[in-house]
Amino acid sequence: MSAPLLKVENVSKRFGGFTALDSVHVSINPGERFGLIGPNGSGKTTLINCISGSLRNDTGSIVFGGEEIGKLPAYVRLRRGIARSFQIPRPFRSMTVLENLLIPIDFGGHGQSSRQAMDEVGVILEKMGLASKADVMSSQLSQVELRKMELARAMAARPKLLISDEAMAGLSSSEIDEVLALLFKLNGEGITIIMIEHIMHAVMRFSQRLVCLEAGRIICEGTPQEVVGNARVQEAYLGA
Ligand code: ADP
Ligand code: MG
């Protein structure tokens, strides 16, 4: 078996006296589709923040591509290949879709010329089904278009690992299918994906492996069927 792409070991995170993550272990293989579920406030976004570098874990280690990254700033982790979408999209509202993508391309530090950057944005927009929206102000986008742009911005960093934080919240079922198809496509191109999602049929269809967090602890890990069938998960999350 190949070495894991990401190995989170014994990661804890406290906010003052509150423990948001309590000794979390997660190992994700290259190319995997990995699902993260759990009730609101269980620590899903905090875990992603620790992995992507917007928060520092208090204990434990985070190894990506064989190297410890837990002390690296977020932009360095991005350049190493960890990109995430935000639960609450943060577009630059007064910029076009194209401009919104040029910023992370630049920030990604791959040293392209502006011509190459424009070409790369074009390829990403095409792939994400946003080509016709390139010159539209992001404030004019629909909810699903905003979600796609959020994922497109993450893609601009040429990630090895893409973390999608509730990219489907508030979407209709056909829009959920669109975003799901996009994530399958990106995974098909070799990108490892962590999906955080409350929409169970989507996360079950997508994930090869699923982890359920409750109050900062992993309470179950396995195939989607195993996790959903687990009594503790049902009690904590699925409301059985
Ligand atoms: P989830 O994404 O699973 O809904 P979060 O990771 O956002 O949960 O939050 C986990 C817990 O940590 C919540 O109780 C939340 O209020 C708390 N929390 C998250 N971020 C902070 C922060 N920056 N400061 C204080 N508490 C936080
Ligand atoms: Mg969250």
Mean pLDDT: 93
Strand residues, percent: 15-25%
The main β sheet shows up as: 6 strands, mixed
Number of strands: 10
Distance between the termini: 37 Å
At the fourth level of CATH, the homologous superfamily of the domain at 6-89 and 155-236 is: P-loop containing nucleotide triphosphate hydrolases
CATH architecture of the domain at 6-89 and 155-236: 3-Layer(aba) Sandwich
What ligand species are in this complex? adenosine-5'-diphosphate, magnesium ion
- The radius of gyration over CA amounts to 18 Å
Secondary structure: helix percent: 25-40%
Return the structural class: alpha/beta
**Could you list the spans in which at least 5 consecutive residues all have pLDDT below 50?**
none
Structural shape: globular
CATH T-level topology of the domain at 6-89 and 155-236: Rossmann fold
Strand order of the largest sheet: 6-7-8-3-9-10
